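(Protein data)
===
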Amino acid sequence: MKKKNSNFFRFGAKSNVLKRNLKSDLSSSIVVFLVALPLCLGIALASGAPLFAGLISGIVGGIVVGFVSGSQLSVSGPAAGLTVIVLGSIAQLGSYQTFLLALVLAGIFQLVLGMIKAGTIGNYFPSSVIEGMLAAIGIILILKQLPHALGVDSNFFGDEAFTQGNHENTFSAVLGALSKISPVAFAISLLSVLVLIYWPKFKKLAVVPAPLIVVVTGVILSFTFAGTPYALKATQMVNIPLFNGWNEFIGLFSLPNFGEIMNKEVWIVAGTIAIVASLETLLGVEAVDKIDPKKRVTPTNRELIAQGIGNISSGMIGGLPMTSVIVRSSANVNSGAKSKMSAVFHGFWLLLSLLFIPGLINMIPLAALAAILLVTGYKLTRIALFKHMYRKGWDQFVPFVVTVLAVVFTDLLKGVAIGMLVSIFYLLRNNMRNPYFYKIQHEGSKKNLRIKLAEEVSFLNKASIQVLLAGVPKETNVIIDGSNSRYIDPDVLETIFNYKHSAYSKGIIVTLENIQKNYTIPKLNIKIEENVN
């Protein structure tokens, strides 16, 4: 009976939290919906897939992954980082239906990765690299959305890579846009940015979300100039697929071709998608946790399981691969979301807009949506962040800047990989310089040198050990004391034993105290006590 009462109170507490967060989550879900809508369509277009596939992925990412995920602020949907892989895979496999089979298998692989606790790899991404990735995404958002804000037609609304599919790059696209400015689109984007900045400062007006005002203003201005030489083109507006009747709507869905299950190429594509999508997701949730005002931590293994279920669901009905997406998640955080219900609501808005108001949605200018992303990008790459990282020291600032530049000039995964390499370099460099793993004691007037090893001596300390031992003067008695050591890496042990044998040639006598021939990695025992009261 006591357990029932406990569960009742827990349910009541959760219900109260949902009610308390409802206003913020509904408001932010509208912003995320407005941001996600053109991104879903743009990524589908860039991937060589049906436009409807992008919307399916956005809906599943919001509703299905949103419910299953343990992340409170992350938003999932079709990933720009996978566009090249999807485009090549569809061509390689010969049909979109066969690609959908590979996507279903990729989802199954992600389920397995979550079950074997592979999500813990996300804990090893350095903070400087994650901060650099966020700043780079902010810069990319600004650069990529400038052409849309200026009214230039583009099929690459959702492309985050430096090199675009139309053989342009980020900078050439911006320079080209400056020579083809649409006055109406520019006016819409400029007015939208001003609304986004100043509207929230008026408390009485802030009840209505600023992005909603931006969209309404954009629609009004586009109607005002319709029929004039300055009228916006259809390519400068949102473009949701239209359908007539239920049968035509059902016909938009696609099913996987399970007859290709024995095709080796399908399994290779599935494995590629599973690995890349999982890495992007882990990077995404790590980044979102960084900017979460409440500093909540996402359970990464559960996130992989949620993404696996999402990709299986998306593949079964004709959608694209999905990941946790930083752009949508950042917009979610910046618009004041409190819980995962914002992501879930945004999925429902995508579904309802597709079913009931596609014509109305198609009246929204891309310039208005670009303004929302421009402001989001500025918040991610604010100057204060660069100053903060600089004050942390060169070992944090250099990996941060390298990650920013690498992500901007390549793509997300390559940029993060380069940032990781630089961060590892500084880690090894600091381990070379930092003598925390030993203590030198000079005993009396004799040439006695005692090297007292620390509790944990890893392979990262091998180089420093070698440098230290190589500098020992001739005819010195060296005592290497491992009495405090619970673990010494085999590479370090090999260095120590080899030195003991070779030191005689220099007249150095080496004594080993309490050093075993091998060590087992100590188990981490954590006792968690749950208070049931």
